[in-house]
Description:
The structure holds 2 protein chains of 2 kinds. Chain A is an all-alpha fold. Chain A has 11 helices and no strands. In chain A, about 75% of the residues lie in helices and about 0% in strands. In chain A, α2 runs parallel beside α7. Chain A is globular, with a radius of gyration of 19 Å. In chain B, the strands form 3 sheets. Chain B has a 6-stranded mixed beta sheet with strand order 6-7-8-3-9-10, with helices on both faces. In chain B, strands 2-1-4-5 form a 4-stranded antiparallel beta sheet, with helices on one face. By secondary structure, chain B is of the alpha/beta class. Classes of the chains: A mainly alpha, B alpha/beta. At the A-B interface, α1 and α6 of A face α2 of B.
Amino acid sequence: MINVVRAELTKLRRPSLSLSTIAAVTFVIGLVTSLLFLLVDSPEGNGERGIRIGRDVLSLATGVSIGFSNSAGLLGIVALCIFAAQTAQEYTYGTLRNLLVRQPSRMKILIGKLISMKLFAIVMVALAAVLSVALSYLFAGVKDISTAAWASSEANAALARTFINVLIATIGYGIFGMILGLLFRSPISAISIGVIWNLIIEGLLSAFVTNIDRYFPGQLLSIVAQGGSEKVSYQYALITSYGFLLAGLLIVAVLFKRRDVAN
Amino acid sequence: MSSPLAIDVADLSKKYGERMALSHANFEVPMGSICGFVGPNGSGKTTTIRMLLGLISPTTGSGHVLGESITHPEKYLPRVGAMIEGPAFYPALTGNQNLTVLAKLGGFDTKSIQGLLDLVELGDRGDSKYKTYSLGMKQRLGIAAALLPNPKLLVLDEPTNGLDPAGIQEIRNLLRKLANSGTTVFISSHLLSEIEVISDYLVMLRLGKVIFSGKTSQLLAKQQPVIVAKPEKSSDLDKLLKIAKEAGHECTVIGDSVHVTGASDYAAKFNKAAFDAGVVLETLTPVRPSLEDTFFEMTGE
């Protein structure tokens, strides 16, 4: 297993992937954090779906981590794309046959890939956290928002909690991408279906059908990243979303184990 | 006592839907030999190789590689090197990094990578990205990857594709050297002249069935040589045909020559008979059928 993880990390460390991930994370964090602070006085709202997060809320100890937690959905999309591409490209490049000749245990390949991508997600979310905090201080200064409470132990604890929740959500989105990658065996199909499902189908249905977000993995993972919502508890969101993902993972694992590798 | 076998396949079949890709195949490959694996496109070569490497499951039958059942590829694959359906690597990684991925995956020493790159003459391009490689360089990297485990069995699917004549010669020498050091080489190729030069053993497929397996020399010995006689005057072709037929040989006119099937020692008798009949021969050549001729005759292609 450790051999698979080491081999996968060699692939994940390649400059093109690292640099594009850094660029994507910087863009997402920059976009969400700047909108959160720079539109703080806008009547149109500065949070997700037009929610207003005022100066008083941003000044609280939890204010330093709001930009970070609001970025979870888009960070998740980045993770979905990476996990899906890393999995499906083995089919399109034809490299899966090389992997299976060198490591015939398909389950070891699958679990090793998952572990290495989780490690990659940890680094990605840590980078996002650092960027988000730095930008929050920068934009708070620009908009004259008090940051006195952000250095408190309460703020540190909130940031740590947010980090764990965003990480859980990001890995969840990544697993969703991996499931799609194994299912469709094409990076383009897996990524486009994953993005359309999360951003459009789930988003639209949740806006028009009451309480349907309780049953959508993407919506539930967003709630996990926020630490729960008024309508859906953190525990429910976590257990249900990961329940869906586990079921999906089991199905594709069986397919991966049994399917002939004919390309 | 028979020699140990590198590959032993018994009644092996693979069915995709209603189509039989491989039907009840039986063949053996002795340890330490270079075995050519030939057949027209779609004859089942790649399907067989995939089954031997555990990538697909047989529908029926059994097989053993290095003495282990193909149902447990984990027992023999660490001793097998393979390049299947051409080289396949990550375009954004360098040649060196691609080999590092496979070496780490198989638990092999990454220190051997530079030596392997040098061996396939990619030593100075190891740090170039795979996507910048020519077809021949990709092929060489595929062979280097197959050699990573220092294999007891090397399975190569069309290894000389894209190589120039000098490259083909180098690969041929490399494979011969490996075979001399005890590595069994199982090589599929459509370049029959290459297979004829290099292989001791041969497995020939047609429409999913094994039509020959055994020593290459045995197969070629089975084929009757042909004597090609070209008369000075083309009006003498009929006389030559009559002479050969009366001597009990099969013969036919192809172009401006008569092709007579028979042992090469008939050539002298044929020459004398032609002279006695007043026919002057411009050329008289005994021709041993090549593997390609034999292949076309046996496969009916």
